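User: Quick sanity check before I run a bigger batch. Here is a single chain. Can you write out its predicted 3D structure?
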Amino acid sequence: MTLNIVRNILDLRKETAGWRAEGLTYAVVPTMGALHQGHITLVKEGLKHADRVLTTIFVNPKQFAAHEDLGRYPRTEAADVAMLAEAGAHLVFAPAPEDIYPPGFATSVVMAGPAKVGLEDKYRPQFFDGVATVVAKLFTQSGADFAMFGEKDYQQLMVVTRMARDLDLPIKVIGVPTVREESGLALSSRNAYLSKTEHHQAAGLHQRLVNAARKINAGQKPSRATAAARRSLALLGFKVDYVAARNAETLALPKSPDEPLRLLAAAWLGTTRLIDNIAV
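Assistant: Done. Predicted structure follows.
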């Protein structure tokens, strides 16, 4: 099947207006390309909720700091489109930066709440405002009924959900469980940066989260379990940014032993930064 690619908002809205005229619902899967099976799972989940699936491919410059990997972020559009066609997607929106941020662009979505909890925001302070701005635009440009986001980027999922709710955007954000390799390593476009040895080591991040969750469920204090996970990761060769137990809904520090918890972690292996999370 040939998958149609549109490059500007006018053409995108012509396509989606046709779906609306037929009475069809549709889901949007926002991506930055360099697709893997985790993204394909989002497409397939979208097909369970809607009649059509639109996938966006856009490497968003506003969520990268000057020292980050915007220039070398993998760009594999032809392979991405082939994967999407095989998965059953119906349309790809792949705009240029100037189509999303035209000359004179002067508006940003500034997030608090789950975007300001001392996790990713501590190490990437520009990140969630950049994400919220582009996702708000993609939601309004597409007019989709559903938006599919992976739980691997859990704080991002909470931020996007809060943003859509606060701005009364008529779209339902759906979180999809993380897709993992057999070793437990969460699939990520940035895994391509890992050397063969690092790739083998990287599974230790998920394993330490599983161990910490097991300890918490057995009655150990979350702070003690996460501290042990940080020490263990350091011994494995990781440079740890954080391993934290947070309220699964707000990402605030837990105050009660009865509240639902999420363990979240970010750590460097060589020059590659990995993130992961699991429910407790």
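The mean pLDDT is 96.

User: Great, the batch can go ahead then.
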